[in-house]
Amino acid sequence: MTHSIQPKIDKGQNVNTLPAVSTLLGNQKVVPVVVIENEEQAHGLAQALIDGGVTVIEITLRNAFATEAIRLIKQHYPTMVVLAGTVNSAAQYAEVVEAGVDGVISPGITQGLLEAAMQHGVPYLPGVATPSEVLLGIEYGLTECKLFPATVVGGMSALKAFNGPFSNVKFCPTGGVSESNYQEFLALPNVVCVGGSWLAPSKLVADGKWGEITELCKAVTS
Ligand code: 3PG
Q1: Is the N or C terminus of the chain more exposed, i.e. has fewer CB atoms within 10 Å?
Q2: Domain annotation covers residue 6
Q3: Measuring CA to CA, which residue among 191, 219, 187, 203 is closest to residue 34?
């Protein structure tokens, strides 16, 4: 009697057909990573980003309002590419897809999240910090990963090292990326975009300093 071990899922078939998150971004290279606490902040922040030429936002699932913020910005700001960040489970993946998100980002990479990406057909950018995690993404057909937390896990040196064995994989470093180093990251051949909280710091959002956020955005878009 022969035994064949069937993979639980058809690896690489579906994720591979999903557009990579970076293809949603057009000419946007900097993804603002934000926390939104309420409706007023959602409107103020979305408009501040747009006024500064930034048409992408990563809304992190770090409070109870996050999913509503995704729904609201998708509804009222149709030019904005809305990404969900800090998506840490398949259940959260389903929740943000239901809210209408354009793409999903997680701090790490798991089979459960990869399976959710295939199930929902919504672009997925998983976080990686090691070669083994990059390999897991490759097994599922991914060609883009987020390096996280970028400056803690080797930053530009890690990205240069990854470009040897993983020359077909592109990265979006996030975590420790700032106005003083983002251009250096973007100059690397395997970096397609960067993420960071410096465009919309929580303090400016809490204080409703929308003009200051717009100016921070203009510095990266003009
Ligand atoms: C986060 O975890 O909040 C993001 O990676 C942003 O990190 P940063 O605040 O270092 O930009």
Answers
A1: N
A2: no
A3: 203
